[in-house]
Amino acid sequence: MLKILVEEDRILRLMQVLLDPSCSAERIAAFADFNSTDQSDFLGWLEQTRTLLPKLYPAQIVLFQTEEEMHSHLPDTDILIVESSNVGVAELDLAKRLKIVQNFGQLHFNVDAKACTTRGIEVLTLRRRTNIAMAEHTMTLLLSMAKRMPLITGLVTTDRLAQAGYPIRPYDKRHTAGANFGRIPQLKTISGMRLGLLGLGEIGYEVAPLANAFGVQVSYHKRSRLPISLEEGLRLKYLSLEKLFAENDFVSVHIPFNEETTGLVNKKLLELMPSGSFLINTSRAQIVNEKDLIEVLQTGHIAGVGLDVMRQEPAAEDDPLLQFSQVLVTPHLGGASRMNGLNDAQEMLQRIQTYLS
């Protein structure tokens, strides 16, 4: 039986559910419930997927959280699946049986690919559908705010426009067109506007080309700057943290949530943003200082905020962010269909099986 060492993650635990017969019934039931919105027959999906993976099922799945745990299991590991853990010479020297390193994403700066190749170890990557969906949701929030969709949805009748503060005053169509008959102001055309990505990981990497396709100028900030060749390929400009907020019409948050990033987006950075700009957060609510965000919203300095995450989920009815008409909030669904995650897992494991053959 193969031993597969997997970096513990709420999504990657699916490897255990799918391949390890010793997985608890409680965890299987939890995953069945989690995926039920889009895969009503999760157990049937498990059974069908296992038939496609005869070289992998059954397998011993070991989940690890720390570098020490990973090192202790590497000597008898056949396949290693990581998301952010470093796999370098020290790790490879321990891994006498290792055949494949699978990075759970398309960027693999954490894996020493050259050292793997020298040892005859295959390095595989995965362009995750979930990350593509997150990028699409980021652009949906951006476009919705630029076009003022939360404000204008349904405002197509005289009464509705009047109730929203836009009483009808017909244009003189003998001389002009009649478009925007509600006279909605401050609509944006995003072509030529500027988007700053705070963080450039898997999701930011997917956002950049989508924004480029709309004619948006994209810049980014992250602790470790990307290679120049990658910046040029993605048409990205590197900026300091302060300049990212000061020089963009939109700033979108794509960094992981941890002790260092808690409250990173604070009043100082928010007040650097140009008047009439927009903030988007599809990462974690705690990265943005909520008190500071509310104060800046009250001043009217920024034109809108698009959120897919809240501090409390579901949010409380009296959540202060819900009181602002310029805040667009969705219920943490940016990853879209659960089938994205299931299809990602199936594709990843089938490719591993192919390379084993």
Estimate nothing, just give the exact number of structural domains.
2
Q: Architecture of the largest domain, according to CATH?
A: 3-Layer(aba) Sandwich
Cα-to-Cα separation, first versus last residue = 15 Å
Radius of gyration: 24 Å
Largest sheet: 7 strands, parallel
**CATH topology of the largest domain, what is it called?**
Rossmann fold
The number of helices is: 15
Shape: elongated
Oligomer: single chain
How many strands in all? 12
* Helix content class: 25-40%
Order of helices and strands: EHHHEHEHEHEHHHEHEHEHEHEHEEH
Q: Any idea what the CATH superfamily of the largest domain is called?
A: NAD(P)-binding Rossmann-like Domain
How much beta, percentage-wise?
Answer: 5-15%
Structural class: alpha/beta
Please list the strands of the largest sheet in the order they lie side by side. Answer: 8-7-6-9-10-11-12
CATH level 1 name of the largest domain: Alpha Beta
Give the uncertain stretches in residue-range form: none
Provide mean pLDDT, rounded. 97
Structure description:
With 357 residues, the protein is α/β, with parallel strands linked by helices. The chain folds into 2 domains: 3-125, 3-Layer(aba) Sandwich (Rossmann fold), CATH 3.40.50.720; 131-148 and 186-329, Rossmann fold, CATH 3.40.50. The chain is 37% helix and 14% strand. It is built from 15 helices and 12 strands. It has helices at 14-19, 25-34, 42-51, 67-73, 89-94, 113-118, 129-146, 149-152, 158-163, 202-213, 228-233, 241-246, 267-272, 290-299, 338-356, and strands at residues 3-7, 60-64, 79-82, 100-103, 122-124, 194-198, 217-221, 236-238, 250-253, 278-281, 304-307, 327-329. A 7-stranded parallel beta sheet has the order 8-7-6-9-10-11-12. α7 (129-146) packs across α10. The radius of gyration is 24 Å and the shape is elongated. The mean pLDDT is 97.
